[in-house]
Amino acid sequence: MNKEIVATTEAPQAIGPYSQAVKAGGFLFISGQIPLDPKTGAVVGNTIELQTEQVMKNLIAILATQNLGLEHVVKTTVFITQMSEFPRFNEVYATFIKAPYPARATVEVSKLPKGVCVEIEAIAVLA
Fold this sequence. Notes:
CATH 3.30.1330.40, 2 helices, six-stranded mixed beta sheet, alpha+beta, 22% helix, 127 residues
């Protein structure tokens, strides 16, 4: 299997031993994105709404490297630190993701990197 590493300065740089995204087998696998400003590396926002918005912008930037958009996403996995914030998360997520919706799993976790409250990873079909 061939794989190609995908990276852009328009999304936060990896903060560990992983790639922003990997192309393989007709798919783009995007690593979990947290709400970091790609220019400064600082956490954006202190609410689930503001952080979700930044995460979605980061996903869009990575998708754009392959001339893809959110409509190409077939699966997301969402990690949030408080399931009680799920309705507020969902409101923002729905402003970005339109029908037909990708498959999705949402998991509550005890902590996320840099103390953020949301992280999203995605899989997209290459056009």
